[in-house]
Design a protein that fits this description.
Strand order of the largest sheet: 1-3-2
CATH superfamily: Winged helix-like DNA-binding domain superfamily/Winged helix DNA-binding domain
Radius of gyration: 22 Å
CATH class: Mainly Alpha
Largest sheet: 3 strands, antiparallel
Number of domains: 1
Structural class: mainly alpha
CATH topology: Arc Repressor Mutant, subunit A
CATH architecture: Orthogonal Bundle
Number of helices: 9
Shape: globular
Order of helices and strands: HHEHHEEHHHHH
Distance between the termini: 44 Å
Number of strands: 3
Helix content: 55-70%
Strand content: 5-15%
């Protein structure tokens, strides 16, 4: 897949996934479980089976998902459709990165476009994933009057997850940070691929760096410009 097609594909994802809030929920469930039928997907959602089925049909029409007919497991019953994320959205463009782009304006522009799309997609994904955390925190807060219940909830959902950390660096130390992170990410990938994922106990890990000081300055400049 060339860079232009990848940009188009990522743009299409951004436009299609926001058509309805349930779309991201379905997407996240299939990211974790790979393949599920409508009954299995409904199990993870506070929606009726007919509502989930309607959104699956529309997402398949938009080519976000593909489906296949399951092998008949119960005689006399119609085998269900099994849904999965369209493989074309799983593909990654490896050729176009910071080290491989040339000085050609068109290729540089393609690279920047893809960076914008990737960051917008990442921002959207992180916001949605963090939204999933709120109900758990609300429940834990409600249970603080009953330490036994609170401990049970914490042990089941949060005890094996590291608390979030925030560290601040500067450009002077960015090279060392990149080198450390590269080694760390390779180890993470190796760990993730060691064995099949137990989806009933799965959790998502992500990290992100932001140019905080530069963003503050940009926000200030844009604010002055718009006055």
């Amino acid at each position: 897949m060339n860079a232009k097609n990848t940009n188009t594909l990522e743009t299409k994802w951004n436009q299609l996934i926001v058509k309805h809030p349930l779309r991201f929920d379905i997407w996240a469930i299939l990211e974790l479980h790979t393949e599920l039928n409508v009954t299995q997907i409904t199990h993870y959602m506070k929606q009726s089976k007919s509502t989930v089925a309607r959104h699956l049909k529309l997402m398949e029409k938009d080519e976000l998902l593909i489906s296949r007919i399951a092998e008949a497991v119960v005689k006399g019953r119609i085998p269900p459709k099994i849904y999965q994320i369209n493989p074309k959205f799983k593909e990654r463009e490896l050729e176009l990165d910071k080290k491989s782009i040339s000085e050609e304006p068109e290729k540089i522009q393609q690279f920047y476009k893809r960076e914008i799309i990737n960051y917008r997609k990442m921002s959207y994904n992180i916001k949605k994933l963090l939204d999933y955390l709120d109900p758990l925190l609300d429940l834990l807060e409600e249970q603080l009057g009953d330490i036994t219940k609170a401990k049970s909830t914490y042990d089941e959902h949060l005890s094996y997850i590291d608390a979030p950390i925030f560290l601040y660096f500067d450009k002077k130390r960015s090279k060392k940070l990149i080198d450390l992170r590269t080694e760390y990410v390779l180890k993470l990938h190796k760990l993730a691929m060691e064995e099949d994922l137990n989806t009933k106990e799965a959790f998502v890990y992500f990290d992100i760096s932001l140019p905080l000081a530069a963003l503050f300055e940009l926000k200030k400049k844009l604010s002055k410009k718009n006055k």
